[in-house]
């Protein structure tokens, strides 16, 4: 028994060590190599020119065309690093790379701190092995930390050296009266920051004003304005007081700023616009302004801002599998998830491979079929006629599909040709039924009795005749599906009194209350009639009840992660190791 306990202890130690080791294993991704990259760098849609002069504020548009060899296998998690010359810095951001059909191929990310951009792939190119291509577009600017203004820079682009100058922007031209420029926002590529510098050389300008009309494709952001006076503009701008907010007049997409008399000071204005339409000039948006002073227009100019947008597309033409699809449409009705059934039928082997149902959008998706040999394969996509009530099925419930598999350099390529030229669409229709409604009317009439009393008194002949006629009530109830109508007619009593006295006059008094009729659909109406009045009161009560809506929310569970599994596996290993040591020491002490 002691030997068994000892063996169990040793076994626990071994298993514990193995589990602890396995819990620390990780899957390492690879850097894709062998890719061919062609880079174009432009400003305002014009490629950088040898001998060109550019500002530290300039925003360059970068486009990189990437081709990856067919022999290079790409798995999910693999990365590709793209770079620019060290004198440039890539704008920070992360964006998706998509294929023409909208499938995501991977993501591209830049920190903004260096000249590299990292592409991380998913499994798209695992199945799209041939003709793997990408075009990636993003923005960049000068490395202002390491390259000062006035520096001559040699840029190596595609193996070609382009010499440019990073010009000095700290010096203000002596003849400058007003200038304006725009810079794309670093945090939001759809926002342009505009700057207007007025009278930086501190000339005398009376009644100075600037007017601006933001063009189509941009909208003015009215809360973005900051305007201040300054007596120094270089190397830094000092603040000589903010303009009164009333000096800024905004009218829709235009504005006017009144500076007043500028004798020993200038002004500095900042504001923003938002891009709402694709620029008509690639890589550039525009804005015009007019500056007036001393009773005349001093300068009218159109300025631009260089813009770049992060986007990318990819292409991988061939794969060794087919994912059959179909579409369901329902006329005169609303599709629901799982409403209709469809089969994928293998004609060559005479069997149903799979049965699927449509989703709420009408999409039908069958599982992927992967091919490992060349040949021609025949299938049918068939809708199952389950004889659902009030449904008229498509006249053609069977559609043919032919798959051809060829070999390209050891890679199997599958192509599907649908009978209709594209994935089949099955059209069903909800049949409208006619319902006949029968109306039944019931009439009830009630009539009360009449009482007559005659009293005669001798000595003075008095004849009193009293006639009382009880109210005649007629109730007509009509029931008509689905509308209920009730008509009630009430006629008050008529009382006639004749008093006769010898030698005196005769007075006859008659009072008759009005007849009131009320008709209301799905409404109860009551109208009492008081014989002493000529106008009856009406009380109407309407009770409407609407059913409450019931909503069911299904919460999705969080996915299990490898880190969680590794943690439990490690703990299990530690427990088993401890158990083994305990059994081993127990055996040794015995």
Structural descriptors:
590 residues; mainly beta; Immunoglobulin-like; ten-stranded mixed β-sheet; five-stranded antiparallel β-sheet; 3 helices; 43 strands; 9% helix; 49% strand; extended
Describe this structure in words.
The chain has 590 residues and is mostly beta strands. Among the domains are: 36-166, Immunoglobulin-like; 178-306, Immunoglobulin-like, CATH 2.60.40; 319-430, Immunoglobulin-like (Sandwich), CATH 2.60.40. It is built from 3 helices and 43 strands.
**Percent of residues in helices:** under 10%
Number of helices: 3
Please tally the β strands and state the result: 43
User: What is the CATH class designation of the domain at 36-166?
Assistant: Mainly Beta
Note the gap between the termini: 11 Å
Main pleated sheet = 10 strands, mixed
Quaternary organization: single chain
User: How does the helix and strand content classify structurally?
Assistant: mainly beta
Report the portion of residues in β strands.
over 45%
CATH architecture descriptor name of the domain at 36-166: Sandwich
Overall geometry: extended
Instruction: Name the poorly predicted regions.
Output: 20-27, 442-565
Task: Tell me the radius of gyration.
Answer: 45 Å
State mean pLDDT (0 to 100 scale). Answer: 77
Question: Could you please say which CATH topology of the domain at 36-166 applies here?
Answer: Immunoglobulin-like
């Amino acid at each position: 028994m002691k030997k068994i306990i000892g063996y169990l202890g040793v076994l626990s130690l071994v298993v514990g060590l193995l589990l602890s080791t396995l819990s620390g294993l990780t899957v390492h991704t690879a850097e894709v190599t062998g890719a061919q990259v062609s880079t174009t760098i432009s400003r305002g849609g014009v490629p950088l020119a040898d001998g060109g002069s550019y500002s530290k504020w300039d925003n360059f548009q970068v486009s990189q065309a990437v081709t990856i060899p067919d022999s290079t296998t790409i798995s999910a998690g693999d990365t590709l690093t793209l770079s620019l010359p060290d004198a440039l810095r890539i704008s920070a951001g992360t964006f998706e790379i998509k294929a023409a059909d909208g499938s995501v191929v991977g993501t591209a990310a830049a920190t903004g701190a260096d000249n590299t951009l990292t592409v991380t792939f998913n499994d798209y190119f695992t199945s799209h092995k041939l003709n793997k291509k990408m075009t990636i577009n993003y923005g960049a600017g000068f490395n202002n930390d390491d390259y000062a203004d006035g520096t001559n820079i040699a840029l190596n682009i595609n193996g070609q050296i382009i010499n440019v100058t990073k010009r000095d922007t700290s010096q203000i031209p002596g003849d400058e009266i007003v200038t304006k420029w725009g810079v794309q926002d670093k945090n939001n590529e759809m926002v342009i920051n505009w700057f207007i510098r007025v009278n930086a050389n501190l000339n005398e300008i009376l009644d100075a004003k600037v007017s601006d009309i933001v063009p189509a494709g941009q909208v003015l952001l009215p809360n973005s304005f900051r305007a201040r006076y300054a007596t120094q503009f270089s190397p830094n701008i000092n603040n000589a007081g903010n303009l009164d907010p009333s000096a800024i007049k905004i009218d829709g997409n235009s504005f006017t700023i009144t500076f007043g008399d500028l004798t020993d000071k200038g002004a500095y204005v900042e504001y923003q616009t938002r891009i709402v339409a694709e620029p008509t000039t690639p890589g550039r948006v525009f804005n015009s302004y007019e500056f007036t002073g001393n009773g005349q227009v001093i300068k009218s100019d159109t300025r631009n801002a260089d813009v770049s947008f992060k986007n990318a597309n990819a292409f991988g033409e061939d794969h060794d599998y087919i994912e059959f699809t179909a579409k369901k449409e329902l006329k005169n009705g609303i599709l629901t998830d799982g409403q209709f059934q469809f089969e994928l039928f293998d004609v060559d082997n005479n069997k149903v491979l799979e049965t699927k149902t449509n989703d709420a959008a009408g999409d039908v998706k069958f599982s992927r079929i992967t091919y490992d040999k060349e040949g021609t394969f025949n299938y049918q996509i068939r809708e199952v006629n389950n004889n659902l009530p009030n449904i008229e099925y498509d006249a053609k419930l069977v559609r043919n599909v032919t798959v051809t598999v060829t070999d390209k350099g050891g890679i199997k390529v599958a192509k599907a040709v649908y009978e209709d030229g594209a994935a089949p669409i099955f059209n069903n229709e909800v049949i409208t039924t006619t319902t006949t409604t029968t109306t039944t009317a019931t009439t009830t009439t009630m009539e009360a009795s009449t009482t007559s009393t005659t009293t005669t008194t001798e000595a003075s002949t008095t004849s009193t005749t009293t006639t009382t006629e009880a109210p005649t009530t007629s109730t007509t109830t009509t029931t008509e599906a689905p509308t209920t109508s009730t008509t009630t007619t009430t006629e008050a009593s008529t009382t006639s009194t004749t008093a006769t006295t010898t030698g005196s006059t005769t007075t006859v008094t008659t009072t008759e209350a009005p007849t009131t009729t009320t008709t209301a659909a799905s409404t109860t109406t009551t109208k009492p009639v008081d014989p002493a009045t000529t106008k009856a009161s009406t009380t109407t009560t309407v009770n409407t009840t609407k059913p409450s809506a019931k909503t069911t929310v299904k919460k999705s569970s969080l996915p299990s992660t490898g880190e969680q599994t590794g943690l439990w596996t490690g703990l299990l290993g530690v427990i088993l190791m401890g158990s083994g040591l305990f059994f081993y020491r127990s055996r040794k002490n015995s």
